[in-house]
Automatic annotation (TrEMBL):
This is Ferredoxin. Signal peptide: none annotated. It comes from Mycolicibacterium diernhoferi. Its cofactor is [3Fe-4S] cluster. Gene3D superfamilies: 3.30.70.20. Keywords: 3Fe-4S, Electron transport, Iron, Iron-sulfur, Metal-binding, Transport.
Length: 82
């Protein structure tokens, strides 16, 4: 898993640093900073995914890696065509 942090979206809630302090810290103004290069090993995936999903402004983005499964399409978003 690979992630990136869009600091322009961060509002400083700090939820990411609470859930995954090994990957996120807060700067002097309380905004999130990504620690490292965004590579997340499998054993840390759950904590980072929790941070990603709990971010109220969606500032954490999962970057697809080659060979990983693409996210499933939302069935509600597809429409039948006749």
């Amino acid at each position: 898993m690979r992630i990136k942090l869009d600091r322009t979206l961060c509002d400083g809630f700090g939820i990411c640093a609470k859930h995954a302090p090994e990957y996120f810290s807060l700067d002097d103004w309380g905004y999130a900073c990504l620690k490292g290069n965004g590579e997340v090993p499998e054993q840390d995936r759950d904590a980072v995914m929790r941070a990603l999903l709990d971010c109220p402004v969606h500032a954490i983005i999962e970057i697809p890696t080659p060979g990983s499964a693409a996210p499933a399409a939302d069935p509600a978003a597809t429409t039948a065509r006749s």
